[in-house]
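Re: beginner question about structure tokens

> Can someone show what the tokenized structure looks like for a real chain? I only ever see the sequence side.

Sure, here's an example I had lying around. Input first:
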Amino acid sequence: MKLELNGIDVDCIIGECPDERTRTQRLRVDVVLTIGDKASETDELSDTVDYATLAEGIRAALVAAKCKMIERAAKVVADLCLADEKVSAAKVRVVKSGAVPHLESAAAVIEVAK
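And the corresponding structure tokens:
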């Protein structure tokens, strides 16, 4: 089964330029998790990923990481997702908007599995 978390907004330090290291910018994170389907039968939160807790963990991890590259930010999120025993694989997309003139956004996508 796939569980998607779309549009997790994170205000954090991201970027390599000196001015980017002193101010927060917004990232948008989308996650697709591969999980078992037990919760579809039991209807119990304990049988699935608590996505509210995971979303908050993603925000906290990216704030703490202060990544320079969106590629690194994607890896930080992917590692956090795989730390949950109920997750067997994760696809993470991190989008940074407005960093370059005449470029709407840049995105890094990573897919990882146990």
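Each token stands for a local structural state, so reading them left to right follows the chain. The mean pLDDT is 96.
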